Amino acid sequence: MNSLPRHRTVADVMTSRVHVAGPLAPFKLLVRLIEENRVSAIPIVDQRGVPVGIVSESDLLLKERRAELESSRDLLHVHKRRLERAKAAGTVASDLMTCPAITVPSDTGLGEAARLMQERNVRRLVVVDQRGRIAGIVSRSDLLQVYLRSDEELREEIAGKLIPAVLMPPDDAVDVEVSWNVATLSGQVDRKSDADILTRMTKELDGVVAVVDRLSYRWDDTDSAPIRPVSLERSFRSI
């Protein structure tokens, strides 16, 4: 029995070697960790390795704006300014970090991770294991790596795995071409529903940018003709 291609999760693309710090890590150490390791943020974890927050470059840069923030009288964003002033005056990670840390389980799908980043307007997510401990960190650029899959790899996955799993038995009339991760499906299948399912599932493959559907079908199994009601009325004539 043919199995469908596996959807990748954040565990497949995340950075697993993560530089972390504790809540009492001093300001200068955080700057050094970011600079020396060429990262943009440092997760803050407790003694058990559970993420409690994250310190980003933007959090640290508030230190450069101390004078501006102290003199600002922005009445429209009082809470935001108060938080920024506190971070600008901070000296250790617990003063500077954004908390709570936005975390996802390691088996989270790439689409779900991308949606969460967009909704929460963040550039990275902290990945945790089943015990809630830090397992890695996934960034926007990590999620985009899936689109670097080669055309040949995608073609083989569509032709060698997806089509045999969707079409029973496999239909050799379906031709697959992939260029710049845009898949073109052409040929003839038995039913319209087969063509619809194959096109939809190809679009959902990790790394596929778009699908050009040139499939035809022998009969439309989705167009059911309306059934005329049968009258049960009977007339009887006396003899």
Descriptors:
single chain, 239 residues, 2 domains, three-stranded mixed beta sheet, 36% helix, 21% strand
Quick summary:
This protein is an alpha/beta fold and 239 residues long. Helix content is 36%, strand content 21%. The strands form three sheets. Strands 3-4-5 form a three-stranded mixed β-sheet.
Class inferred from helices and paired strands: alpha/beta
Strand and helix order? HHEEHHHHEHEEHHEEHE
Number of H/I helices: 10
CATH third-tier fold name of the largest domain? CBS-domain
Query: Number of folding domains?
Result: 2
Task: Count the E strands.
Answer: 8
Task: Classify the helix fraction into a percent range.
Answer: 25-40%
CATH superfamily of the largest domain: CBS-domain
CATH class of the largest domain: Alpha Beta
Radius of gyration: 28 Å
N-to-C span = 67 Å
* Strands in their spatial order, largest beta sheet: 3-4-5
Residue-averaged pLDDT, rounded? 89
Range of strand content: 15-25%
The biggest beta sheet is recorded as:
3 strands, mixed
Instruction: Specify the overall morphology.
Output: elongated
Describe the protein in words.
With 239 residues, the chain is α/β, with parallel strands linked by helices. It has 2 domains: 10-146, CBS-domain, CATH 3.10.580; 149-219, 2-Layer Sandwich (Histidine-containing Protein, Chain: A). The chain is built from 10 helices and 8 strands. The strands form 3 sheets. It has a 3-stranded mixed sheet with strand order 3-4-5. Strand 4 and strand 5 (134-139) form a beta hairpin. Helix 9 (151-166) runs antiparallel to helix 10 (192-203). The longest helix has 16 residues, at 151-166. The chain is elongated and about 75 Å long. The mean pLDDT is 89.
